[in-house]
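Proteins fold reproducibly. Next comes a concrete instance:

***
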Amino acid sequence: MFEAITDEEQRGQVGIGTLIVFIAMVLVAAIAAGVLINTAGFLQTQAEATGQESTSQVADRLQVVSQSGTFNQSNEYITQLDFVVAQSPGSENIDLNQTSMELIGADGQESFKIEDESNATIDIFTNDDLDNVLTDNSERAEINVQLQNPNSSGDSWLGYNLEEGDTLTVTFTTASGASTTAEIRVPSTVVEDSVRL
């Protein structure tokens, strides 16, 4: 069954062949291990980035503390919407300039970034910073949106005429993509200039 090799030259040739095969196997294994380690590192980095983005899209959102409006008795329109907002629990810093608003109502849909809309203003009244960034859960900011020119009858700036009994959906979307929706319902009878919506 086993053949004894008596010739010394043949015995050496078999040993060299085995050594070459062994070295080739080690090289292949080393290259494969390098590829696996490189791929694993890339996948880990990508998974961490995806996790952070997913967390931001869920956590980095605004919380609407209160909402109100200014009612013009003469032309019977809501002329201005006022929102007091804060960071939701667990969120990172929120740049209100980069936050966008979407208004959906009977007059259609209007979307804009707060910074780009001349009829929208931001006032952070709980700190002295002027950069319009919420950095703490205790901070509050007021966002004002002018819908109507109060000095003109029916001059709609954003294309919305909110009258008594109307509804409007307002969605705030932060730079990370997290959204918060507020429902505005104008009472069917308004007797004051300032109304809680």
